[in-house]
Amino acid sequence: MTSRTPWLQELFDIPPSECRTLLESLVVAEFERELMTGEEDVLPLQVSCFEIGPTSLGVVETRRRLEQETGRPLDSTFLFNHPAVGDLVEFLTTEVAPELFSAAAPGPKAQQDAEVSTKNLVNDVLKELHQWPKRPRPAPMPC
Questions:
Q1: CB–CB of 71/97 below 8 Å?
Q2: What digits encode the pLDDT tens for the residues 101-141?
Q3: Element (H or E) spanning 12, and its range?
Q4: Which residues are registered as beta bridge partners of 84?
Q5: Under 8 Å between Cβ of 75 and 64
Q6: How far is 74 from 65, CA to CA, in rounded Å?
Q7: How far is CA 59 from the centre of its chain?
Q8: Which stretches of 28-106 are assigned E, i.e. beta strand?
Q9: Which value, in Å, is the radius of gyration of the alpha carbons in the chain?
Q10: Angle of helix 56-70 relative to helix 6-13, nearest 10 degrees?
């Protein structure tokens, strides 16, 4: 077993429900460091990091720092194929440290089950509404 880096230890020390938020803030901080932005600047999570400033070299440097912070290797092509910070956070939760996030977020099967359950609930409500007794309309008044 590999030793835990300070980042991983911090993630292991908090409740699972807070892990993703903390990981996101740590990743955003690394990109903000590369971009030399202040706290008042908001880094969009779903925009390509190449659209907001860093060069290819800057992205490679950020990847290197993230590898050091997580203690886990990161596929160098991933950031170039999925350059949004949100994509990187998702990748880290599912591929790099899944043991931290398995209890924090439902997996694909649980999400599918929830969607089916929601659809079934909506269908049941609509059926009941369709069968709801309708008030009889008053007879038309003669002209």
A1: no
A2: 775 444 455 455 556 667 777 777 667 666 666 656 667 77
A3: helix 6-13
A4: 48
A5: no
A6: 10
A7: 20
A8: none
A9: 24
A10: 60
> Which pLDDT belongs to residue 133?
60
* 3-48: pLDDT as tens digits: 788 888 888 888 888 888 888 888 888 888 887 776 677 777 777 7
48 bridge partner residues: 84
Write the CA distances from 48 to 1, 67, 97, integer angstroms. Answer: 34, 20, 23
Task: Report d(CA 21, CA 75) in Å as an integer.
Answer: 22
Whether 22 and 10 have beta carbons less than 8 Å apart is answered as yes
d(CA 63, CA 57): 10
Tokens at 91, concatenated: 């990748």
53: left (phi over 0), alpha (psi -120 to 50) or beta: left
How far is 30 from 61, CA to CA, in rounded Å? Answer: 10
